[in-house]
Every structure is written in structure tokens, then in C-alpha cells.
Description:
15% strand; 38% helix; four-stranded antiparallel β-sheet; 13 strands; globular; Aspartate Aminotransferase, domain 1
Amino acid sequence: MSLTRTSATFAPPVMEARRWIAGVAFPAERPLINVSQAAPVDPPPEALRQVMAEVALSRDDAHLYGPVLGLPELRAELAGRTAAHYGGAVAPEQVAITSGCNQAFAAAIAALCGEGDEVILPTPWYFNHKMWLDMSGVRAVPLPCGDGLLPDPQRAATLITERTRAIALVSPNNPGGVEYPADLLRAMFELARDRGLALILDETYRDFHSAPGAPHDLFADPDWADVLIHLYSFSKSFRLTGHRVGAIVAAQAFLAEVEKFLDTVAICPSQIGQHAALWGLRNLTQWLAGERDEILARRAAIERGLPMLGDRGWELLGVGAYFAYFAHPFAESSAELAPRLVREQSVLCLPGTMFQPADAQAGARQLRIAFANLDAAGIATLYDRLAAVEG
């Protein structure tokens, strides 16, 4: 029997981890702490939900197929916001709306790559990126990150072959949380330009970056569209995870290729979700600033409580946006440790083995904690439980 596209990759990690809690009884004094998935658990703010309800009730066209590349008003609004935020020039025709940011990545790869082509992914990598490359017949070339979980452009250069089509980065990073410095992003951009590659930059968590202002100046380059494929998501910013609204910002000619993929897979993004994203961009700036402040406060709580774990041999490798990425001190692999944490400490998190190649040793000592849905008290409780783990 031939290998199918889906059998070429692994099972969805978050779904796999959820199986660990099946049949486990969590005592009342130690309820489950679920830090496995980076998604808001609260619904959108009430004002936004009211807008969505009004759209559903009063706009007949919201229930019909819409433009494949998204609502013109949303494309124009995001183009303007992107240009203003990064200090560059972005036209509405250079924006496509997608059914979530995962679909944006999938569409970009479909438009860039053929069978047997290669894409460089820093490790630890975002597992859905690796899964899509596997299912597309595209080889994911691992670029192991060094100190601070930062990818090295010079090392990336040594991995480029005649089949390389792109370098794909996520910043702030999933799973590591690390915010890539502007000079590193510029170096990767220049490397891609010099070697005739695309730079795919996924900034799903941009709105929770710890630094004020633009995290890079790539859009200020007059020829950015020759190199950059920028991905964005409204899922985290406006809590629209269930409505699946993401975006690609890229060259207009490239989006003509992307349109073929989108039309075949989903025809158009969610109409109600798009109207919600548009209203959010125009009306929720202050609300989103408050959300960012809260995420930064939780990040500070992660850093503030670290000595408790540091004294027991844990190491914080990276933190930012929704994530803290740890090295644990135990001899057992994180693939065994993570399910044990469910049973013994009522903590559900993901092992580093889910973010590394199967033959990489580093993942065995790593764990990802998605802390964005824990307040400071919840983070303190999490630390108490991790500190109680015995090897």
C-alpha cells in the first residue's frame, strides 16, 4: 500500500495530549491545569459578539460565498494598519484573508513549493508547520537554535540547497516564546533575498510582543514583496479562534497563486469572522492594549517565580507571548514526563519531543507551557506542582 499524504506525518500533538487525561480522576484539591494549547478560553468581548450577532441577523450576504481573498474592506484596513505599524507601503491587493493562520501557511507553501522542495524551519519548530510540509511532500530542513533559542543566519546559509524555497520563522516564537531581534530578522531577510528564497514570517503573536512599536523594519524596504511573505492571525488578538480568520501579506502576483489554493480548499473565509475582525481593528485598539498588558503581566509572573524551579534544576529557555519553554532536570524523556505530570500533578503540557525531529536529543529535556490562560495565582500554583515533581 502506498504512503498517503496524511500518513506521511504524525498525529496532531494537542489532540494526542488530550488523550492523556482520559479516565484520569483529578482530586478536588488539585484540579487540572491545562497549559497544553495556546488559545484563549474566553469568548470575544461582548461588544464584538453583539456586532457578530447583528451581522448574522441583518446581512444576508454574510451567509453566502464571499471573495476568495477576503472582504475588500478588511483587506484594505489590514493593509493600512500593517503599513502604519511597520513604517512601509502595503496595498490592499497585497493582502489576502485566510481561514486562520494555519491555512495562510498552507497556502503559502502550496504556492511556493513542489514535490521534493525544501523549507528551513528553526527547531524547536511549530508542529503544524512541520505537519503541513510532510503532507505536501516538502522536506522540512531543521535549523537547530542555539543560545536563547535564536536561529543563526550563518548556519541557515549552510543548509540552503538547490531545492530550498523558503526560510520559515515564527516570532514571537511558538513554541519557545522568544522574540526574534530586528537585526536577526533583517539578516534572515537579506539571506533569503541573496539566495532567491522567500522569507515566511509568522507573526500570529505580534500583538503581545513585549517591545513597543514595530518589531522589525522589513516592510520599510521598498522591495519587501520580492522576499517577504507575512502571516497574521486575528485568533489571539480578538479571541476569534473558532471563527478562523488569518491573513497573508505578500506580492500581488504571489497572491494570485494563493487564490487557487484558497478557492479549492475553503472558497472563502468565514464572513461573520471577517466582519468581526474588521470591527475589531477599527474599535478594539484600547481593549487589545489591555489584553497585551495582562499577557505581559503573566510573563512577568513566569520570570518572577523562576527561582523556585531553578533551585530544583529547571531552566527557562525562552518566554514571551503565550509561551514558556523549559528544560527539565530529570533523566526520563519529556515524552514520558509529560503524561506523568497529568497523573501525578494534574498538569497537562506538551513535551519538547513534539517540537523536534524524531532523532533530536534536545526535545527529550524540554517542555512547553502555554501560560496565557493562567493568572498570577494560577502560575504560582503551576510552579508549586512542577517543583513537587520527583525524578
